Amino acid sequence: MSISETARRPGAADRLRDALPKLVLSPTVAIVAVFVYGFIAFTFYLSFTDSRILPSFGWVGWQNYENLFRIRAWDTAVANLAIFGLLYIAICCALGLMLAILLDQKIRAEGAIRTIYLYPMALSFIVTGVAWKWFLDPGIGLEAVMRGWGWESFSFGWIKDSDMAIYTIVIAAVWQTSGFVMAMFLAGLRGIDSEMLRAARIDGATNFALYRRIVIPQLRPAFMSAFVVLAHMAIKSYDLVIALTGGGPGTATELPATFMYSYTFTRNQMGIGAASAVIMLMTIAAIIVPYLWSELREKS
Amino acid sequence: MATAPTSEAILAGTGAPARSGGRSRLAAHLPRFVLYAVLTLFCLYYLLPLYVMLSNSLKPLSEITAGGMMALPGEWTTAPWSAAWSSAQVGVEATGLRPYFVNSILMVVPAVALSTIAGALNGYVLTKWRFRGATLVFGLLLFGCFIPFQMVLIPMARMLGLMGLAGSVPGLVFVHFVYGIGFSTLYFRNYYAAFPTELVRAAQIDGAGFFRIFWRILLPSSGPIAVVCIIWQFTNIWNDFLFGASFSDFDSQPMTVALNNLVQSSTGVKEYNVHFAGAIMAALPTLFVYAVAGRFFVRGLMAGSVKG
What we know:
The structure holds 2 protein chains of 2 kinds. Chain A is mainly alpha-helical. Chain A has 2 domains: 3-46, no CATH class; 71-297, MetI-like fold (Orthogonal Bundle), CATH 1.10.3720. Chain A has helices spanning 3-6, 12-46, 63-68, 72-103, 110-118, 125-135, 142-148, 165-190, 194-202, 207-218, 220-236, 239-244, 256-266, 270-297. Chain B folds into 2 domains: 30-75, no CATH class; 98-305, MetI-like (MetI-like fold). In chain B, helix 6 (134-146) packs across helix 8. The longest helix of chain B is centred in the last third of the chain and has 34 residues, at 272-305. Chain B has helices at 4-12, 32-56, 61-65, 79-87, 98-128, 134-146, 150-163, 169-193, 197-205, 210-218, 223-239, 242-247, 255-265, 272-305. Chain B is mainly α. Chains A and B meet through helix 2, helix 4, helix 5, helix 6 and helix 7 of A and helix 1, helix 2, helix 5, helix 6 and helix 7 of B.
């Protein structure tokens, strides 16, 4: 429904006027075309080359991908992402839903409580990482405090333990994001038709049944949005790991994002780094593209 | 329903219609004090790290290493704050975080301004001057926000070098501008989509041109969405670490990178109190924005996740 179509008349000035909107749009579209899609193509191409410290263009086919899947640190990173991603999404959704339902009971001072639940989202992951890094540090943090209070046998050294360190990333990430998920669910709860709930209650539905059968199913769009946002944040997680554990102890908390960075820029294996970035992109695209597609299609 | 007007006003901005009250839900069955106890417990959980940072930034190091992390300061001191600000060892130099705080300001202000202007113009074209493929163009712009930025690090490093912007604050401004276009376009597009197109048509019949319509008709009513967009971009760009770590030199690092260096690089005695003071400094600008305009902050978060 272009306005310019209805107003079309011949003449150079008119043609310029008709083209003006597209001219205004085109610089940013061109920038995105180059800096997003051109760069994606470039990195994609690099993943098939023998690039080491600098980009080079000797074609090696699937070699980088074959090598990538033979590197144990990559296996660790992928396994960590699976553990971290699943727990992060599940706990954030469970906690967010619970807090949203609790906050939806006509709570006095709801606004203040919500503000407190949500403020971590305004912080940098580096700040969150620093706070939790020292709080979880057995030498000065929780463990030392508990022992100081007289619980001599108390022990909490997950952050120094290769098997448990990944869970400290989950702890800090859940702290940062769960309030935001709460806000999404709360908005969903506020959008539910109250007439339907009233009718169900008149029919004698218990509160538990009411939530399980009517309220939670209606929150499906909120669940979808929360899942997409959390999954894409999990895959992109980089700052938090760097600040909290630096990927350690050893490589115990490496994620694909940290793997890509260290292989590309410190280990000078740019081809393998590019291959790992491509896999990250594919994973995110598999989640985001269907979501954007459905969101944009129903509008137009 | 005493708090209803304020609380629902906040979420109304997300598109959820305000719900009329009068129901009891779980309320009749679950003792209220249990409810409040649980909610308070979670308040403590969310506030705990902030308390740890604040109280430990105001006490001497010896009190922390003696196992007193959870205690209030025995001896109050602002020395960690002044050390973090102006004399702590960040990387190789003992400059404190001040120069990096300035870098972040110099990076954030132009990047936010540029991406917001671009988003407003894009949103205007994509809603009021629609053309074939407009939705596709929008979808492609939007997808650019979600890509893992690892995908662009290698070519961007080269490109900044070619442009003569490598390792500089203007280089970071450019990077944040480029990758901020998608979200700012999203905000303005969704906002302008609800703006009556008839007004634009009428103005056009009266002879107003493209820019005059934007300037006189759309822009004056764009205040709310501009605030949302600015807050979102400010928070994102201020908090960015990946681009800062990849594309800055020692003297152009933003605050997040410098804070990380401060915390990771201190060899010998780890000055936890200085680290905490630095962390609060890095958090203050975005916390301030959240405190002043939390309502818009929430709206921005939600718009980023819900509905196109």
